[in-house]
Amino acid sequence: MTTVVKSPPAPLYERGENPAAALEAVFRHIAATRMAGVSILNPALDVEAVGFRPWRDDWVGVLVTPWFMSLICLPGPASVWEPESSGSKRDVELPSGSYEFLTAHEDELGAYLTSSLFSPMFEFPDMDRAREVAAAALAEMFTPAEPAAAPAASPPAPPPVGLTAKLDQPVSRRGFFGAFLRPGDKS
Predict the structure, then answer these.
(1) Which CATH number do you get for residue 103?
(2) Phi, psi dihedrals of residue 80, rounded to the nearest 5°
(3) Residues 144-155: pLDDT tens digits?
(4) 3-class DSSP state for residue 17?
(5) Is residue 117 one of the residues assigned to a domain?
(6) Are the C-beta atoms of 72 and 114 separated by less than 8 Å?
(7) Which residue, of 11, 121, 124, 154, has the fewest CB within 10 Å?
């Protein structure tokens, strides 16, 4: 018996191209096959990649499906990702801060990162509202975080007076013992 080794399909997108169309094609296929008939699907929604843009060496955007909305990161043309198992965690720095992503893999896409925003999607009445929320979430993530306010400076301490002032001054041994011998020095 001959064993046929099936090679994985070629990715649907070139790393230099915007991956939105490839993501939509892959997840529409998943919706029609693996997710068909699953009770968490919102029938008012479709699959749409929202706002994909280059970020550093990768592509970042939001993927809306009838069962989830997630921030997605795919490798760009110059990006080198270390192989990781699906489900392992990785932090991604965006202008608004650091976000935790999980690694995932689809044969037609290769490795990608996903950070869940909503799941399931029943709170969205239609695709327009889901798209609007996806765009707003992405806009927030690409808005630089406000720098932390510097703590208020405490007022300077008043200069020492009297005995405290003298204790803060360097004193020789002779001066120290001599202070006990001088009459009239009361501070």
Answers:
(1) 3.30.1460.40
(2) -120, 110
(3) 987 766 666 667
(4) coil
(5) yes
(6) yes
(7) 154
List, edge to edge, every strand of the sheet that includes 48-55: 48-55, 58-64, 69-75, 110-118, 97-106, 89-94
d(CA 38, CA 138): 28
- In tens, the pLDDT along 38-70 reads 999 999 999 999 999 999 999 999 999 999 999
Can you give the residue range of the structural domain that contains 83?
20-141
Residue 150 token pair: 């510097």
Q: What angle do CA 50, 55, 58 make, to 5 degrees?
A: 90
Name, in order, each residue with C-beta under 8 angstroms of 175's C-beta and a sequence gap of 6 or more. none
Residue that the structure tokens 């360097």 belong to: 170
Q: Is it true that the peptide bond before 120 is cis, omega within 30 degrees of 0?
A: yes
Which of 26, 112, 28, 30 has its CA nearest to residue 72? 112
Residue 181: CB atoms within 10 A of its CB come to: 7
- What Rg value do the Cα atoms of the chain yield, rounded? 31
DSSP conformational letter for 39: T
In sequence order, what DSSP letters do the residues of 58-81 get, joined into one string? Answer: EEEEEEE-SS-EEEEEEE-TT--P
Could you tell me the CA-to-CA distances from 114 to 45, 151, 172 in Å, in that order? 19, 36, 69
Q: Is residue 179 part of a domain?
A: no
**How is residue 96 written in tokens?**
């608004």
pLDDT 10s digits, 104-133: 999 998 899 999 999 999 999 999 999 999
Looking at the domain assignment, is residue 157 inside a domain? no
Kindly give, in sequence order, each residue whose CB lies less than 8 Å from that of residue 83, ignoring residues fewer than 6 positions away: 111
